[in-house]
Amino acid sequence: MYVLDMFPYPSGDGLHVGHPEGYTATDIVCRYQRMKGVSILHPMGFDAFGLPAEEHAIRTNTPPRISTEANIRNFVRQLKMLGFSYDWNRQLATTDVGYFRWTQWIFLVLFDTWFDRDQQKGRPIAELPIPAEVSAQGELAVREFQDDQRLAFQAEAMVNWCPALGTVLANEEVIDGRSERGEHPVQRIPLRQWMLRITAYADRLENDLEHLDWPAGIKKLQSDWVGRSVGAEVDFFCGDAGSVQDWQKARAGNSFPGAPDDQTIRVFTTRPDTLFGATYMVLAPEHPLVDHLTTPGQRAEVGRYVEASANRSERDRTDDRRKKTGVFTGSHAINPGNGSPVPVWIADYVLATYGTGAIMAVPAHDDRDHEFAKQFGLDIVQVVKPVNGKAHKECFSGEGIAINSGRFDGMPTAEMKPEITAELERKGFGRAAVNYKLRDWLFSRQRFWGEPFPILHELGPDGKPNGMMRAVPDSQLPVDLPDLEDFRPHGRAEPPLEKAPESWLYPVIDGKKYKRETNTMPQWAGSCWYYLRFIDPHNDRCFVDPELERQWMPVDLYIGGAEHAVLHLLYSRFWHKVLFDRGHVSTPEPFRRLVNQGMILGEMEFTGYRDAEEHWVSSDEVDDSDSQNLKHQKTLKAVQAIRLEPGQVEKQGDRFVLVSEPSIRINSRAHKMSKSRGNVVNPDEIVADHGADSLRLYEMFMGPLESMKPWSMSGVNGVRNFLDRFWRMIVEYQADEIQLHPAVQDVEPPEEQLRVLHKTIRAVTEDIESLGLNTAIARLMEFVNHFTREEVRPKSIMERAVLLLSPLAPHICEELWQILGHDESLAHHPWPEFEQALTIDQTIEIPVQILGKVRGRISVARGTSDADLQALALAEPRIAELLDGKSVRKVIVVPDRLVNIVAN
Ligand code: ANZ
Q1: Which of 6, 564, 655, 804 is the most exposed place for a label (fewest CB within 10 A)?
Q2: For 382-431, how does the pLDDT look when each residue is reduced to its tens digit (9 = 90+)?
Q3: Any residues with CB less than 8 A from the CB of 137 and at least 6 apart, and which?
Q4: The pLDDT of residue 636
Q5: What is the predicted pLDDT for the residue at 224?
Q6: How far is the CA of 435 from the centre of ligand 1 (A)?
Q7: Around Cβ 654, how many Cβ atoms within 10 Å?
Q8: Is 366 close to ligand 1, i.e. is its CB under 6 Å away?
Q9: CB 354 less than 6 A from any atom of ligand 1
C-alpha cells in the first residue's frame, strides 16, 4: 500500500500545525496497516524550490541552497519529533541535483512528444508525420514544424511582468494591476516563454476523473478548470456591403474555411439557438481585425481603448462587478441568421484568448451582453421564451422555446441547437465546435532558484541564438545551477542566469558552441512527479525502476490540502499521462484515492457576553460603558463545545460561528492562522508542553479529518488528560518506580469485559479503515472510562488496548508495551482481531407495531424464536391493553427486528 502525504515547502518558519493534521492521519493508516501485515510505502520529502528561499537569499546574501538545507533539517527534526513512521531512507528534495536531473529528463520527454489527436495519445516526435510541402522546404522547415507540435514549446505569450520583483507573475498573483507580494505595479508584455501543451490532454484529464476515488468537490473543480464547452463557431460577414452575396455564394456547398479572412468575424457560441437575437458583435481589443474594421472617425477612441485594456489582467477584465466599457468600431457585420446588419464593437469583457476572441452578442439572453447593451443603448431582441410563460422583459438566460427566429419558432432550445448548427453547416456559415477554459501552461520563470531547462540554443553566424534548439544529451544531464555572485533580479525581463559565467552559458558539445536556456522551471515542476521518485529514490540509471513502479503504483491514498485542487493535481496528472503514453509508467492515473484535510483555523476569538443571570447576550446589545454586571468571558463552555461536538463550526459570511446548543449561538469566530493575527500555533511548543502524542491525538480529535475546525488549547489539555488516564489505567508509581497497576492481573477475563474489548476493537478498526479518526479516539475514551472503574483489569485486555491506541499515540504505547513485559516494538505486532459474536449486544430492543404503528417495545435476548417473540409482544402490558376487545388476525415477526400485529 502506497500512502502519500503532500510534501511540504520547507519554509523558514518550520512546521505549521496544519501539516501534522494530514501527516498524522496517514501515519495512523500506515501503522495500522503494518500491524495487519501489509507492506507499506510511506515516504516524505521537500518541495524546496521557490520564491521565499530566493528572497531570503537576496536579503541575507547567502546562496538559497544554504537556507533551504537549514530549513529542511528543521522540518526533519520536527517530523521525527512527532513520530511519523516515514521511510527516511527515501527522503528527497526537489532541489537535490540527483532529483532534478530526472525532472530535466522528464521535461525532455515532454519536449520529445507530440499529441496525436486521432489516437488521443502522446507519441515520439520522430513519428510526427511531416507534410510533403514542409519536407520539400528542407531540414530547417521540418525542425520548425516539429518544434511547433512538441508538448514543450516556446511561444510569445502576454505575461504579467513585474519590474520591481523582476519576474513574471501568474494571474493569481496579480491583484488590481499590482503584485500580490509587495503591491508593485505589473505590466502586460509579450515575452518568449516555455509553454506545456496541457490543453491537448483536456478531454482525458476530464474523462479519467470518473474512475478516481476523489472528493466530488475536487473533481468538479478540476472539471470546471478544464471547462469543456460545446457549441458552434459561426462566421459573420464584415466586408463591403456590396460583396455579401459573393461571400455567401463562395460559402455555399459546405465550405467552412479553416481560418477566417478579413471579411469574416468568426465567433464561438454555446447558444447557436439565439443567433436571431444577436444584435451586435464584440471583438476583444487584441483581435486581429480591430485595426481593419475601425473607421477613420473612430480611430482615436479605439486606439485609446486598446491601449488601456492592454494593462488589465484577464481576471480584472472578467470581474462582473466592474462596469462594462467598450467602443464602437464604426463598422457593421451581417447576421447570417436573418441578414440584418449589426454594429461591431470592441470591449474588454471579451477575451482574446478564449474561443475565437469575438462574440455575437445576444443581450436578451446573456447577462453581460444585456448589461452592455443597456449601457450603450443597443437593440435587445427576445428570441427565447420560458417553456411555460411569456418572454421576459429583462434578460432570460435559461433554455425555452424559440420566438422571433423565423422557421425555428416554437422549437425547444435543446432541439434547435443541433438544427441551426446543421443549417449553418449546410450554408457554410458555421460548424459544431468545442472549447476549453484550460490554457496551455506557462512554464518558465525568470528566477534563479529553479530547475534549469536542459535545452541548448544553436548560434547563428552572428554568435546569437538563431531560433533552433536541441535537447541537452542524456549523458550531459544534470544541468546544475551555476555559482552566481549576484542572482537578484534586475528590472529587465531577462533571467538572472543570463549573468552566469561564460563557461556555463556557452557550453561546447560535440565540438559545437551553444547558448543555454536561461529561464528556470516553475516550482510546480518538482512536485509533478515526486511520488514516482520515492519508489526508487537512489536509482541513477533511470527515474524509477519499471518493475518497482508496477509494484507500487498507483498511490493508494493521497492526503493533502484542498488548496491543491487544481494546479498541482492537474499538472501532475498531465505529466503522468505523458509518461504513461510514452511507456514510462504503467497506470494512466497517479492517485487512486484522494482525501483533503480541512483547514485548521486559529483559536476562537471569543466575543460572547453573559448578563448577571448568566444568559447569553448578543454583543451588539452590550453597552461597554456599564460593564459592571457583564462578564466578558472566554468560557470553558464554548471551548468544551468545540471539543465535544467536533465539526460544529458554522460558516456565516466570512466568519465561523460555533453552535453549542440548539438554542444558544455563541458569538465567536475563528480565523485562518496567520502571523499578522498572532494566532499561529507552534508545534514545537505544544510538544514541549504536552507531548507529541497529545498533538497527534488532538489534531485527530478536533473533528472529522475533512472539516475546517478551530484550534483550542483546552482541547489539547483534554486529550492530554485522556492519555494520562490511559497510562494510569495500566501503570502506577511506587516511590518513583513505574510498575503495573495492581488491578492489571494475569487472569482470564470475564465475558462482560471481553464484550467491551471486542466492541472497542471492532469500532476502532472500522473507524481507522474509514478515516473516522475522531470517533476512533472517542471509542478509546469510552473504553478507558469503563476499565478505570474495574477492580480487575486483565492483562490480556490491557495489552490489546495498548495495541489499539498505538497507531494514534505510538510513543506512550511503546512505553506501556514494555512495561507490560515485551522486549520488542509493537509496531509490527499483529493488530487485535475481534470476535463478531462478542461485538453484538445480547439484549436488544424490538418495536411492537399494531397495524404498522409502533405501540410498544420489548427487550429480548438476541435470537429469540418467532414463537417467543410473538408471545412476549402480546404480553407487553401496553400492547395487551390496546388489544383488549380486539381480535388478533395475524402476527408478523421479523426475527431480531420487529413484531407487527394485525388486529381489528
Ligand atoms: C452567444 C450567447 C447567447 C452566448 C447567450 C451565451 C448566452 P462558456 O460557457 O464559458 O464557454 N464568449 C465566447 N467567447 C468569448 C470570449 N472570448 N470572451 C468572452 N466571452 C466569450 O461561454 C461561451 C459563451 O461566452 C459564448 O456563447 C459567448 O456568448 C461567450 F444567450 O454566444 B455566447
Answers
A1: 655
A2: 999 999 888 888 899 999 999 999 999 999 999 999 999 999 999 999 99
A3: none
A4: 28
A5: 93
A6: 10
A7: 7
A8: yes
A9: yes
Nearest residue (by CA) to ligand 1, atom 9, is 229
Q: Tell me the pLDDT tens digit for each residue of 518-537.
A: 999 999 999 999 999 999 99
Cβ–ligand 1 contact at 362 (below 6 Å)? yes
Contact 41, 77 (CB under 8 A): no
What phi-psi label fits residue 138: left (phi over 0), alpha (psi between -120 and 50 degrees) or beta?
A: left
Residue with cell 488589465: 312
Residue 278 Cα: closest atom of ligand 1: 1
Model confidence over 41-63: pLDDT tens digits?
A: 999 999 999 888 888 888 888 88
Other CB atoms within 10 A of residue 354 CB: 18
What is the signed CA dihedral for 852, 854, 858, 859, rounded to 10 degrees?
Answer: 110
**Centre of ligand 1 from the C-alpha of residue 358, in Å:** 9
Q: pLDDT class for 267, splitting at 50, 70, 90? A: very high
- Mutating to test ligand 1, I would choose from 359, 365, 369, 399 the residue with most ligand atoms within 8 A of its C-beta, which is 359
What Cα–Cα distance (Å) separates residue 555 from each residue in 213, 217, 232, 447, 524? 11, 20, 40, 32, 19
Place of cell 493521497: 558
Q: Please state the atom number of ligand 1 nearest to the C-alpha of residue 365.
A: 31
Listed range (407-411, 549-553, 867-871) with the worst mean pLDDT? 867-871
State if residue 357 touches ligand 1 by the CB under 6 angstroms criterion: yes
Alpha carbon distance 763, 165 (integer Å): 55
Q: Under DSSP, is residue 64 helix (H, G, I), strand (E, B) or coil?
A: helix
Name which of 285, 280, 314, 281 is nearest 301 in CA terms.
285
The protein residue with its alpha carbon nearest to ligand 1, atom 7, reads 366
The answer, yes or no, to whether the previous bond of 501 is cis (omega within 30 of 0) is no
Contact 355 CB / ligand 1 (< 6 Å): yes
Q: What is the mean pLDDT of residues 164-177?
A: 75
Calculate how far, in angstroms, residue 210's C-alpha sits from the geometric centre of ligand 1. 27
